[in-house]
Design a protein that fits this description.
two-stranded antiparallel sheet; about 270 residues; disordered C terminus; alpha/beta; about 40% helix; single chain
Length: about 270
Protein backbone atom coordinates (compact mmCIF):
# COMPACT_ATOMS: atom_id res chain seq x y z
CA UNK A 1 0.00 0.00 0.00
CA UNK A 2 1.44 3.38 -1.02
CA UNK A 3 2.32 5.81 1.76
CA UNK A 4 0.12 8.93 1.89
CA UNK A 5 2.06 12.08 0.98
CA UNK A 6 2.36 14.74 3.68
CA UNK A 7 1.45 18.02 1.90
CA UNK A 8 2.34 20.16 4.95
CA UNK A 9 6.02 19.16 5.09
CA UNK A 10 8.88 19.92 2.74
CA UNK A 11 6.76 20.56 -0.34
CA UNK A 12 5.15 23.68 1.17
CA UNK A 13 6.48 27.10 0.09
CA UNK A 14 5.56 30.75 0.29
CA UNK A 15 4.43 30.84 -3.32
CA UNK A 16 2.09 27.89 -2.92
CA UNK A 17 0.58 29.31 0.28
CA UNK A 18 0.21 32.73 -1.37
CA UNK A 19 -1.53 31.18 -4.38
CA UNK A 20 -3.86 29.35 -2.03
CA UNK A 21 -4.76 32.46 -0.04
CA UNK A 22 -5.11 34.54 -3.22
CA UNK A 23 -7.86 32.17 -4.35
CA UNK A 24 -9.72 33.13 -1.19
CA UNK A 25 -9.14 36.89 -1.60
CA UNK A 26 -7.41 38.42 -4.61
CA UNK A 27 -6.43 41.57 -2.68
CA UNK A 28 -3.78 39.88 -0.48
CA UNK A 29 -0.12 40.85 -0.97
CA UNK A 30 3.33 39.71 0.09
CA UNK A 31 4.31 42.32 2.69
CA UNK A 32 7.77 42.87 1.16
CA UNK A 33 6.07 43.91 -2.09
CA UNK A 34 3.07 45.69 -0.59
CA UNK A 35 2.42 49.32 -1.45
CA UNK A 36 -0.10 49.43 1.38
CA UNK A 37 2.09 48.15 4.21
CA UNK A 38 5.41 49.79 3.35
CA UNK A 39 6.28 53.47 3.63
CA UNK A 40 6.92 54.84 0.15
CA UNK A 41 8.42 58.23 1.04
CA UNK A 42 9.39 60.40 3.99
CA UNK A 43 8.64 64.11 3.99
CA UNK A 44 11.13 66.31 5.92
CA UNK A 45 9.89 68.76 8.53
CA UNK A 46 12.42 71.49 7.73
CA UNK A 47 14.33 70.77 10.95
CA UNK A 48 17.12 68.21 11.05
CA UNK A 49 16.74 67.74 14.80
CA UNK A 50 12.99 67.14 14.53
CA UNK A 51 13.54 64.79 11.59
CA UNK A 52 15.90 62.72 13.71
CA UNK A 53 13.52 62.77 16.67
CA UNK A 54 10.61 61.56 14.55
CA UNK A 55 12.27 59.09 12.21
CA UNK A 56 15.78 58.41 13.49
CA UNK A 57 17.18 59.99 10.33
CA UNK A 58 18.33 63.59 9.80
CA UNK A 59 16.82 63.70 6.33
CA UNK A 60 13.51 61.95 6.88
CA UNK A 61 10.48 63.30 8.74
CA UNK A 62 6.89 62.12 8.54
CA UNK A 63 6.00 58.88 6.72
CA UNK A 64 3.55 58.67 3.84
CA UNK A 65 0.47 56.54 4.37
CA UNK A 66 0.51 57.22 8.10
CA UNK A 67 -1.10 59.69 10.51
CA UNK A 68 1.22 62.05 12.40
CA UNK A 69 -0.09 64.09 15.34
CA UNK A 70 1.29 67.29 16.81
CA UNK A 71 -0.17 67.99 20.25
CA UNK A 72 0.27 71.01 22.49
CA UNK A 73 -1.14 74.20 23.95
CA UNK A 74 -2.02 77.19 21.84
CA UNK A 75 0.99 79.00 20.43
CA UNK A 76 3.57 76.20 20.67
CA UNK A 77 4.01 75.96 16.88
CA UNK A 78 1.65 73.22 15.67
CA UNK A 79 0.45 75.19 12.63
CA UNK A 80 4.02 76.38 11.99
CA UNK A 81 5.24 72.77 11.79
CA UNK A 82 2.30 71.64 9.67
CA UNK A 83 2.96 74.41 7.14
CA UNK A 84 6.70 73.73 7.18
CA UNK A 85 6.02 70.12 6.24
CA UNK A 86 3.60 71.28 3.53
CA UNK A 87 6.43 73.41 2.09
CA UNK A 88 8.76 70.40 1.95
CA UNK A 89 5.96 68.24 0.52
CA UNK A 90 5.36 70.75 -2.28
CA UNK A 91 9.03 70.38 -3.25
CA UNK A 92 8.38 66.63 -3.64
CA UNK A 93 5.36 67.13 -5.89
CA UNK A 94 2.59 66.96 -3.27
CA UNK A 95 -0.44 69.24 -3.13
CA UNK A 96 -1.44 70.05 0.47
CA UNK A 97 -5.14 69.84 1.37
CA UNK A 98 -5.56 71.85 4.57
CA UNK A 99 -8.71 71.25 6.65
CA UNK A 100 -8.89 74.33 8.86
CA UNK A 101 -11.28 74.35 11.82
CA UNK A 102 -9.94 77.39 13.65
CA UNK A 103 -8.81 79.97 11.08
CA UNK A 104 -5.22 78.96 11.73
CA UNK A 105 -3.60 80.00 8.44
CA UNK A 106 -3.82 82.56 5.64
CA UNK A 107 -1.90 83.35 2.46
CA UNK A 108 0.53 85.74 4.16
CA UNK A 109 1.31 83.25 6.94
CA UNK A 110 2.05 80.34 4.61
CA UNK A 111 4.01 82.55 2.21
CA UNK A 112 6.33 83.65 5.03
CA UNK A 113 7.10 79.98 5.65
CA UNK A 114 7.94 79.35 2.00
CA UNK A 115 4.69 77.57 1.11
CA UNK A 116 3.28 78.28 -2.34
CA UNK A 117 -0.27 79.53 -1.58
CA UNK A 118 -1.27 78.94 -5.21
CA UNK A 119 -0.65 75.21 -4.67
CA UNK A 120 -2.41 74.78 -1.33
CA UNK A 121 -6.08 73.77 -1.12
CA UNK A 122 -7.91 74.93 2.00
CA UNK A 123 -11.19 73.53 3.27
CA UNK A 124 -12.98 75.22 6.16
CA UNK A 125 -14.48 72.55 8.43
CA UNK A 126 -16.48 72.75 11.63
CA UNK A 127 -17.93 69.31 12.41
CA UNK A 128 -16.33 65.89 12.76
CA UNK A 129 -18.80 64.27 10.37
CA UNK A 130 -18.20 66.92 7.70
CA UNK A 131 -14.43 66.42 7.97
CA UNK A 132 -14.69 62.64 7.85
CA UNK A 133 -16.94 62.75 4.79
CA UNK A 134 -14.63 65.17 2.99
CA UNK A 135 -11.51 63.04 3.58
CA UNK A 136 -13.36 59.86 2.59
CA UNK A 137 -14.60 61.42 -0.66
CA UNK A 138 -11.13 62.73 -1.56
CA UNK A 139 -9.70 59.24 -0.98
CA UNK A 140 -12.45 57.72 -3.13
CA UNK A 141 -11.62 60.08 -6.03
CA UNK A 142 -7.92 59.29 -5.76
CA UNK A 143 -8.69 55.56 -5.64
CA UNK A 144 -10.59 55.94 -8.91
CA UNK A 145 -7.48 57.53 -10.44
CA UNK A 146 -5.34 54.69 -9.09
CA UNK A 147 -7.66 52.02 -10.50
CA UNK A 148 -7.87 53.70 -13.91
CA UNK A 149 -4.29 54.87 -14.45
CA UNK A 150 -2.22 52.84 -11.99
CA UNK A 151 -1.26 56.00 -10.10
CA UNK A 152 -2.90 59.01 -8.50
CA UNK A 153 -2.07 62.64 -7.79
CA UNK A 154 0.10 63.14 -4.72
CA UNK A 155 -1.60 64.92 -1.84
CA UNK A 156 -0.88 65.51 1.84
CA UNK A 157 -3.80 66.02 4.24
CA UNK A 158 -3.68 68.39 7.23
CA UNK A 159 -6.35 68.73 9.93
CA UNK A 160 -5.85 71.85 12.06
CA UNK A 161 -7.21 71.16 14.53
CA UNK A 162 -8.98 68.03 15.73
CA UNK A 163 -9.73 69.55 19.14
CA UNK A 164 -11.69 72.43 17.63
CA UNK A 165 -14.11 70.24 15.68
CA UNK A 166 -17.63 69.92 17.05
CA UNK A 167 -20.09 67.06 16.81
CA UNK A 168 -23.43 67.38 15.05
CA UNK A 169 -25.18 66.97 18.41
CA UNK A 170 -23.17 69.72 20.08
CA UNK A 171 -23.88 72.11 17.20
CA UNK A 172 -27.60 71.28 17.17
CA UNK A 173 -27.87 71.61 20.96
CA UNK A 174 -26.26 75.05 20.89
CA UNK A 175 -28.57 76.21 18.12
CA UNK A 176 -31.58 74.89 20.05
CA UNK A 177 -30.42 76.43 23.34
CA UNK A 178 -29.86 73.08 25.05
CA UNK A 179 -26.96 72.89 27.49
CA UNK A 180 -26.81 69.11 27.72
CA UNK A 181 -23.44 67.41 27.91
CA UNK A 182 -22.30 65.95 24.57
CA UNK A 183 -21.40 62.25 24.85
CA UNK A 184 -21.08 61.64 21.10
CA UNK A 185 -17.92 63.57 20.19
CA UNK A 186 -15.40 60.84 21.11
CA UNK A 187 -17.43 58.25 19.17
CA UNK A 188 -17.54 60.45 16.07
CA UNK A 189 -13.78 60.99 16.23
CA UNK A 190 -13.24 57.22 16.44
CA UNK A 191 -15.46 56.80 13.40
CA UNK A 192 -13.49 59.46 11.50
CA UNK A 193 -10.27 57.48 11.84
CA UNK A 194 -11.87 54.04 11.47
CA UNK A 195 -13.29 55.09 8.12
CA UNK A 196 -10.23 56.90 6.76
CA UNK A 197 -7.09 55.28 8.21
CA UNK A 198 -7.08 52.36 5.76
CA UNK A 199 -7.73 54.40 2.56
CA UNK A 200 -5.00 56.87 3.59
CA UNK A 201 -2.54 54.02 4.05
CA UNK A 202 -3.56 52.23 0.85
CA UNK A 203 -3.08 55.40 -1.19
CA UNK A 204 0.13 56.39 0.65
CA UNK A 205 -1.39 59.73 1.71
CA UNK A 206 0.39 61.33 4.68
CA UNK A 207 -1.91 63.07 7.16
CA UNK A 208 -0.96 65.61 9.83
CA UNK A 209 -3.37 66.16 12.72
CA UNK A 210 -2.92 69.13 15.05
CA UNK A 211 -4.56 68.60 18.41
CA UNK A 212 -5.17 70.42 21.68
CA UNK A 213 -4.15 69.04 25.08
CA UNK A 214 -5.66 69.21 28.54
CA UNK A 215 -4.29 68.44 31.98
CA UNK A 216 -4.92 64.92 33.29
CA UNK A 217 -7.02 65.23 36.44
CA UNK A 218 -5.74 63.20 39.39
CA UNK A 219 -2.39 62.38 37.83
CA UNK A 220 0.47 62.05 40.35
CA UNK A 221 2.86 63.57 37.82
CA UNK A 222 1.50 66.59 35.86
CA UNK A 223 0.51 65.15 32.50
CA UNK A 224 -1.08 66.56 29.36
CA UNK A 225 -3.47 64.41 27.34
CA UNK A 226 -4.53 64.93 23.75
CA UNK A 227 -8.16 65.89 23.17
CA UNK A 228 -10.52 63.59 21.32
CA UNK A 229 -10.21 60.35 23.27
CA UNK A 230 -8.73 57.10 22.02
CA UNK A 231 -9.64 57.58 18.34
CA UNK A 232 -6.57 59.66 17.55
CA UNK A 233 -4.44 57.98 20.21
CA UNK A 234 -4.59 54.54 18.61
CA UNK A 235 -4.68 55.58 14.94
CA UNK A 236 -1.75 57.98 14.96
CA UNK A 237 1.49 56.25 14.00
CA UNK A 238 3.56 59.08 15.41
CA UNK A 239 2.58 61.55 18.14
CA UNK A 240 4.77 64.53 19.03
CA UNK A 241 3.74 66.54 22.08
CA UNK A 242 5.05 70.10 21.99
CA UNK A 243 5.51 72.47 24.90
CA UNK A 244 6.68 76.06 25.25
CA UNK A 245 10.17 76.44 26.68
CA UNK A 246 11.83 79.40 28.39
CA UNK A 247 15.57 79.95 28.49
CA UNK A 248 16.69 80.11 32.10
CA UNK A 249 19.20 83.00 32.28
CA UNK A 250 19.09 84.17 35.90
CA UNK A 251 22.17 86.44 35.72
CA UNK A 252 20.89 88.49 32.79
CA UNK A 253 17.38 88.59 34.21
CA UNK A 254 18.69 89.93 37.54
CA UNK A 255 20.81 92.55 35.75
CA UNK A 256 17.84 93.61 33.63
CA UNK A 257 15.65 93.93 36.74
CA UNK A 258 18.20 96.22 38.46
CA UNK A 259 18.58 98.32 35.33
CA UNK A 260 14.86 98.65 34.74
CA UNK A 261 13.99 102.23 33.90
CA UNK A 262 17.64 103.41 34.09
CA UNK A 263 17.71 104.28 30.39
CA UNK A 264 14.37 106.06 30.41
CA UNK A 265 14.43 109.86 30.30
CA UNK A 266 11.37 111.90 31.24
CA UNK A 267 11.08 115.46 29.93
CA UNK A 268 9.24 117.93 32.16
Amino acid sequence: MAKKKDVISDGSSLSSVFDLVKKVDDSVEIIAESAYSNIKEWIPTGSYILNACMSGDLFKGIPTGRITTFEGDSGVGKSFLACSICREAQKMGYTPIYCDSEGAIDSNFVSRLGVDPANLIIKQVSTIAETSQFIANVCAQLQEQEDKYGEHQKVIMVLDSLGNLTSDKERDDIMAGNNKRDMTKAQEIKALFRVNATPLARLQIPMIVNNHVYAAVGSYVPTSIGAGGSGIKYNSSLTIQLSAAKLDDKDNEAAAAQKQGADTTTKN
